[in-house]
Amino acid sequence: MASRQWNSYVAGLDKGKGLYFLFVKSETKTPGGLTARPVLTSYYKSEHFQSRPYDPYNVFTSPTAAILCADAFQSMYAQMLCGLLQRLDVLRVGTVFASGLLRAIRFLQLHWQELCNDIAAGALTPKVTDPSIRGAVAELLKPDTELARFVAAECSKGDWASIITRIWPNTKYLDVIVTGAMAQYIPTLEYYSGGLPMACTMYASSECFFGLNLKPMCDPSEVSYTIMPNMAYFEFLPHGGDGHVPGAGVDKAQLVDLADVEVGKEYELVITTYAGLNRYRVGDVLRVTGFHNAAPQFRFVRRKNVLLSIESDKTDEAELQKAVESASALLQPYNASVVEYTSHADTKAIPGHYVIYWELLAKDASPSAAEAVTRDGVLERCCLAMEEALNSVYRQSRVADGSIGPLEIRVVRGGTFEELMDYAISRGASINQYKVPRCVSLPPILELLDSRVVSAHFSPAPPKWSAHCAANQ
Ligand code: AMP
Predict the structure, then answer these.
(1) CA 362 to ligand 1 center in whole angstroms
(2) Same domain (yes/no): 143, 38
(3) Domain span at residue 338?
(4) Which part of the chain is the GH3 middle domain (predicted)?
(5) 193, 176: one domain
(6) Of 284, 303, 322, which residue sits at a domain end?
(7) Which of 249, 268, 303 is the last residue of a domain?
(8) Is 295 found in the same domain as 183?
(9) What is the pLDDT of residues 191-229, one digit of tens each?
(10) Ligand 1, atom 18: closest residue by C-alpha
């Protein structure tokens, strides 16, 4: 959306700046030698971004050098510091996805003392070594004891409610995507921002830019994205609940054209792009809410087949199954196995992490076998084995970005999954068709599982990940 159009929703955005936490990810190479990187990394590295003409509606507090630094700590540190230095200029605070903004707040919680020291001394910590960041920050950073004292006073209270508006009092709204998997973060963002409006402006992917929200200040539950018909050739597959995976083939006869979708119906998005994807199933399920001229508008319903997502990771059922299988192989020497499992994306703490509930069966009935499993660090190794088996986006988030915390296995006592089934049946599930949910989020189910936990184990180390091999995996 042209930035000055924002003035029709929020006046005066040309009179201040945006505190946007923006990051690049490491590049990888495909087996054929092509560079592969997420779309925003391409954009930030492009001339288009770096040599953008001055636009008073689009002035960021973050120096471009900080955005372009691939080291997540240095980049975040510099962006936070510059945001604090210009705190009264800030009119909006944003990241692409809500999870990123929570990470930034967590960073402030962990590093405010160092940041305040730098502000008081007017000198950047030696932990930031990137020379271009140091140069850019030096232009802004002068000793300012009053600001250092103010930030320290706000952060040392131990009360983080409304921290965004306390530190950046002129903030009018948050610019973050909180639709789809990101909706889980709305209550926490409301807490940190004192209930500021959240604007979800765009719906896009690395494959293609799909649509815009023409009412950016509406409530997150009301957000519809208007498809931009010139971005690709858009087609829609009536959503029938088959188990197709993103990118899989399409039954052409079923496809509906952009102008022919019907209000109220759900479809899967299929794109043919200028870059060469042909009838590619994105994997998103959308519901038609109306039309803007002839362009349909959609509510994002969900991503197909995704069980777990903390940030940009998307873990499906098959992948989770494979990870559980490869980890449970470590139990064999103990004559134990996993009889049932389910999972949960725990975002109560930042960074969020995957929790996998395991019910174990010790084939050797002696209690010592079960004890040995929980005692000898075996389950910690199982956590790591699961992480090693997950996709490269997950591992990159764990290793390079620190945006996902160590995976946790919670062992539940024998019979817990039967109780889970009893609960589902008591709520009307069919006993014949009951399937163990491979991911749970309902509070009563989580309470049931958590009340049966006998031990909890965390991955002791980050999984293997390297930019070099990521694209091959
Ligand atoms: P990626 O290409 O990895 O950046 O992921 C693109 C995917 O992120 C989309 O296909 C959606 O599943 C999800 N996504 C992107 N924008 C939004 C949005 N505004 N609301 C909900 N989900 C989104």
Answers:
(1) 42
(2) yes
(3) 307-471
(4) 225-303
(5) yes
(6) 303
(7) 303
(8) no
(9) 999 999 999 999 999 899 999 999 999 999 999 999 999
(10) 203
Protein residue with least CA distance to atom 22, ligand 1: 180
pLDDT at residue 174, as a whole number: 98
Mutate to test the pocket of ligand 1, among 206, 267, 303 (most ligand atoms within 8 A of CB): 303
What is the spatial distance between Cα 146 and Cα 163, in angstroms, rounded to a whole number? 18
3-state secondary structure of 108: helix
Report the Cα 466 to chain-centroid distance in Å.
20
SS3 (DSSP) at 452: coil
Could you tell me which of 291, 268, 292 has the C-alpha nearest to residue 280?
Answer: 268
Instruction: Give the atom of ligand 1 at the shortest distance from the alpha carbon of 283.
Output: 10
Q: Whole-model pTM?
A: 0.79
Same domain for 38 and 177, yes or no, is yes
Q: Which residues surround ligand 1 with Cβ inside 6 Å?
A: 38, 177, 179-180, 200, 203-206, 282, 284, 300, 303, 312
Residue located nearest, by CA, to atom 6 of ligand 1: 205
pLDDT at 471: 42
On whether both 407 and 283 belong to a single domain, the answer is: no
Omega cis (within 30) before 351: yes
Residue 9 lies in a domain: yes
Nearest CA to ligand 1 atom 21: 180
- What's the 301 CA to ligand 1 centre distance in angstroms? 11
List, for the chain, all residue ranges whose pLDDT scores fall below the cut of 50. 1, 241-243, 469-473
Q: Tell me the CA–centroid distance for residue 299 and ligand 1, in Å.
A: 12
How many domains is the chain partitioned into structurally?
A: 3
For 418-430, the pLDDT digits (tens) are 899 889 888 877 6
Residue 217 DSSP code: T
Q: Both 448 and 371 in a single domain?
A: yes
- My answer on whether 291 and 365 are in the same domain is no
In this structure, is residue 257 part of a structural domain?
yes
Closest C-alpha to ligand 1, atom 9 = 205
Asked whether residue 28 falls in the same domain as residue 134, the answer is yes
Instruction: Calculate the alpha carbon distances from 30 to 37, 166, 467, 469 in Å.
Output: 10, 46, 11, 8
